[in-house]
Specification:
Length: about 180
């Protein structure tokens, strides 16, 4: 049986086997952002100050579950999946977590607290950068090549791990762009 978080939970993460039912929210640590399973079936992240939506599934779900295989899935009333993060397939583990970062980013952590998925939509006015490093880690810069020839450019992605840098830079490639 899946656990249910309480309405307006102040935790930044919820564990595997938890669900968001209609009108239940998961708030960021700073309280400025939240994820909600809306009554219209949409799973949406918002900035609280002006209720600006940052990301949505655009699905007709009755509840959303973070599963033990690492998959975030939205189900309709009949129990059929209507949206998924497609991060399932891992060995069952109760240590996967769904979280909302202090910049509005929605993410999934694996059992080692590594980011395996995020929604790629952050609040550009947020003062923070990305998902906070777990276990006291420090963000480090990774070079990224963005765009397509002849309009490529190099930039930097800050991340705690190589895996996180790969996830944040997609669909770009890690490493600085070669000269044209």
């Amino acid at each position: 049986m899946a656990a249910t978080i309480t309405l307006h939970c102040q935790a930044a993460v919820i564990p595997a086997n938890s669900t968001l039912q209609v009108n239940q929210t998961l708030d960021s640590d700073n309280g400025n952002y939240f994820l909600v399973q809306q009554g219209d079936g949409n799973l949406v992240s918002y900035r609280k100050s002006d209720m600006k939506p940052l990301w949505a599934t655009y699905a007709n779900g009755a509840y959303t579950a973070i599963q033990q295989d690492g998959n975030l899935v939205q189900y309709n009333n009949a129990g059929a999946a209507v949206w998924a993060s497609n991060t399932g397939g891992h060995a069952a583990n109760p240590n996967f977590k769904l979280g909302v970062a202090n910049n509005g980013l929605v993410y999934i952590l694996d059992e080692g607290n590594r980011v395996i998925w995020h929604n790629k939509s952050i609040d550009p006015s947020a003062p923070t950068t990305g998902i906070p490093c777990q276990l006291g880690g420090q963000q480090i810069p990774f070079g990224v090549c963005r765009g397509f020839p002849p309009f490529r450019y190099s930039s930097i992605v800050y991340a705690c791990t190589l895996q996180e840098a790969l996830a944040r830079s997609a669909p770009s490639t890690l490493g600085m762009c070669p000269p044209n």
